[in-house]
Amino acid sequence: HPCTCPPSQYNQAFNWKPTKMANTRMTIHMCYLTILLLLALLAPPCTPVSDTDDGTNSAGVDGSRRARAEATVADILSAHNAARRTVGVEPLTWSPGIAGYAKDYARSRRADCAPRRSSLFYFGENVAVGKGRRWDGGALVAQWVDEGRRYDYGSGSCAAPAGSSGCARYTQVVWRNTTQLGCGKIVCDSGDTLLVCDYFPPGNYGTGRPY
């Protein structure tokens, strides 16, 4: 049987709130190291299912659904790393701990299916919604990667229309200092597909270029 990871273990870990950080490199590094330690301690012994969620108990998921979940993880990673390879940055690795949080947050938006970021500041986060339930993870990631067409590296500007998401989702995908990724994909009550991806260390931080 595939392993399951109770949401409570992630909730307990990520309710941790650091004290007010001084604006120093050392403090930021210590914060990152603490989060990495939490993720390492709470990561489940196998990769959590990150696939279309129909609300059933994942303990009863059969082998074919498990295979689909693993294929979804592979599609999401492949789409991210193809974009990163294009700009010459290192590939991301999958984090079961981060994926557990992303899946819990995606489930919390099942009723409204709103593409809104969570409140966590120590992860970068991208959220996408696809109409209908037949979306694979790679196709949803492609929405973010497509923003790269509007990004001008020389000026660091984004030629995005007013009211759009700009290029921040693309720059998070290719952010050079980000090393870990975890995502959750569900089908909302509306029948649409919601994908949440969280990144560590977070991108779009400071004034530097993404790569």
From TrEMBL:
Has keyword Transmembrane? yes
Enumerate the spans annotated as SCP domain. Answer: 71-207
- Alphabetic keyword roster: Membrane, Pathogenesis-related protein, Plant defense, Transmembrane, Transmembrane helix
Membrane-spanning segments = 26-43
Q: Which residues form a coiled coil?
A: none
Classification via Pfam families: CAP
Instruction: Tell me the superkingdom of the source.
Output: Eukaryota
Q: What does this protein do?
A: Probably involved in the defense reaction of plants against pathogens.
Protein name per its UniProtKB record: SCP domain-containing protein
